[in-house]
Design brief:
The chain is α/β, with parallel strands linked by helices and 405 residues long. It is built from 14 helices and nine strands. Helix content is 43%, strand content 13%. Helix 10 packs parallel to helix 11. The termini are far apart.
Length: 405
């Protein structure tokens, strides 16, 4: 009985301590491997500035325990297959109508040339990036597809993936919303795929919201595709975009939605925490961008909610002055960086110089390493289509020294 009474007193003391220091209690549970709930995640992402240092310290400790002091990036060729898009988001400069200046659709000859040049420069990944379902909106584009020998956008993307594979790169496709059948078609040609959730908030689709004229940005539609990718055993990258009218609580809820999908299917290989950047000539050109501490809160919360094993990324070209801060907040990856092609989604933001990035990482206590477009934990028969094995093994052997240095 004395032992039982002592146990009860200890539990009561811990309960009192948690009430007196709620953030501390959440961090203790996260570091102890407990699964954080919605109230916990919201409390973390809404924490006061004074609480942020220990929030970041806990996230970094969780990262270090699982990942060590290594931070990775993927050397890539950014292939903007087409910038035509049926959606009209209030913050996007990438999308075009067919008669807009700068509208394009890449030919397979261009894909081959860019892929060859990228491989010569040490690239490993071919990022296929394009607008959502342009063939549903533009007759001119449907005619273009016919001249390219494709019956639809995804068939053209499939041909582009084959071309990149032939050039010695591993494709990763981000084509917006795809059906289950379209993803199945691309699976034998892609080591991974991706779709940003952006936000789980339905408010952003309402009148006046940034996604009012973007049917493919419906959160339910995007979550359905993310789930279906898991059912198809496709290694998948997703993430949140902060600063587009979302609240901190909605960011936390978006991270929880991503975690829930991963718990169901195990497919999420990487979660991106991306900051909105204002661009001239758009409805949000005067909107405030997320601050450095706002990003640090989101990164640290993502790490603590998603756990040490998850790969958490923040794009370095969108926050070039925050490299050290983001490392301290718990990231372990910088995403794709290209020596050849610019970031066509954020053309105003140049990629960091790799040697400079390597030096800054080293001064912060991290070793910068190359990686493939598929993370090591997914390179197995469950997640890699048999058709991709020869290319993956060949490229892995050829670039082993690069990946390890």
């Amino acid at each position: 009985m004395a032992y039982k009474g002592r146990w009860i007193r200890m539990a009561q003391a811990e309960s009192i301590s948690a009430r007196a220091d709620p953030i501390g209690g959440i961090l203790t549970r996260a570091l102890g491997g407990e699964r954080l709930g919605e109230a916990d995640a919201i409390a973390l992402i809404e924490c006061a500035d004074a609480e942020l240092p220990r929030l970041m310290a806990a996230a970094a400790a969780l990262r270090d325990r699982a990942k060590g002091r290594t931070v990775t990036f993927s050397p890539k060729v950014f292939l903007p297959i087409t910038n035509l898009c049926r959606d009209r988001c209030s913050y996007c400069t990438f999308r075009k109508d067919p008669d807009d200046p700068g509208a394009w659709t890449m030919t397979l000859a261009e894909v081959a040339e860019w892929s060859r040049r990228g491989r010569e420069l040490g690239c490993i990944e071919a990022l296929m990036c394009l607008g959502d379902k342009p063939e549903l909106a533009f007759k001119e584009y449907r005619e273009t597809l016919m001249t390219l020998g494709a019956r639809g956008t995804i068939e053209h993307v499939a041909h582009a993936c084959e071309t990149a594979l032939d050039a010695g790169l591993l494709p990763h496709t981000n084509a917006g919303i795809m059906t289950r059948a379209e993803m199945a078609l691309l699976r034998p040609l892609n080591v991974s795929m991706g779709l940003m959730l952006e936000s789980v908030s339905p408010r952003l689709r309402a009148r006046g919201g940034v996604h009012q004229w973007a049917p493919d940005k419906d959160p339910a539609v995007r979550l359905k595709m993310i789930d279906e990718a898991g059912e198809l055993r496709i290694p998948f990258t997703t993430g949140i975009l902060i600063g587009i009218g979302d609240t901190p609580a909605e960011r936390a809820q978006s991270l929880l939605a991503i975690r829930a999908s991963h718990e169901r299917h195990g497919q999420i290989q990487e979660v991106i925490i991306q900051n909105f950047r204002a661009k001239p000539g758009l409805p949000l050109e005067d909107a405030p961008e997320p601050g450095a501490l706002e990003m640090a809160r989101a990164i640290a919360t993502a790490r603590l909610v998603l756990g040490g094993a998850m790969n958490v990324q923040a794009p370095p070209n969108l926050s070039p002055h925050e490299i050290e801060l983001f490392l301290a907040a718990g990231i372990n990856d910088w995403g794709g960086i290209s020596p050849l092609s610019r970031d066509y989604v954020n053309p105003e933001a140049p990629w960091p110089h790799l040697e400079r990035l390597r030096e800054r990482c080293a001064r912060a206590g991290f070793q910068l390493k190359r990686r493939l477009a598929i993370y090591p934990e997914f390179i197995n028969d469950e997640w890699v289509d048999p058709a991709l094995r020869p290319a993956l093994d060949r490229l892995s052997d050829r670039t082993a020294a690069e990946v390890e240095t």
